[in-house]
Amino acid sequence: MGISLLVHETKGEEEIELLDLEEAIKRAKAQYGIEGIITGAIESTYQASRIQKICNTLDIECFNPLWQKDQFKLLEDLIQNKFEVVIVAAAAYPLDASWLGKKMDLEFIRQIKPLHEKYRINPAGEGGEFETFVLDCPMFKNGLKILNTRIVSIDNNHRMEVTVG
Question: Do residues 151 and 124 share a domain?
């Protein structure tokens, strides 16, 4: 995208991770003069409200363009707009390791729809059923290619660690 990347590590501990996120945003504001945050929140009030609170504290804007959007329409829009997105984690029955590496395309929508109807699997993974990784989209100057993968499975939690180039 041609913009700076700020990396800030967190252990992912609930509530402490919010302090880590606030510190990262504070650094971005100081270093790069950011005036706002754009989130990918779709339905998660937890995510949206906490990021909004951080933005209020730091006196910056918070924009949630996907908020409450129909998720099947969101998937169709991603495909139509040439986003290349792959599944990198699956953590809800009946999703298993075979879902890792699947592209979000029309076939994905065809496969996820009955799982949404039968098991209430969120079609965009908003409930943590699966996680995704964007390899390419119209905003990227250069797309990413997966060079290597490593699958880690513990019980019904599967993740694909990727090396990209």
Answer: yes
Contact, 132 vs 122, CB < 8 A? no
Contact 121, 74 (CB under 8 A): no
- What predicted TM-score, i.e. pTM, was given to this entire model? 0.85
* Domain hosting residue 129, numbered range: 71-164
Question: What pLDDT tens digit does each residue of the chain (165 aa) get?
Answer: 888 889 999 988 888 999 999 999 999 999 999 999 999 889 888 888 999 999 999 999 999 999 999 999 999 999 999 999 999 999 999 999 999 999 999 999 999 999 999 999 999 998 889 999 999 999 999 999 999 999 999 999 999 999 999
Q: Is residue 1 part of a domain?
A: no
156 is written with which tokens?
């019904």
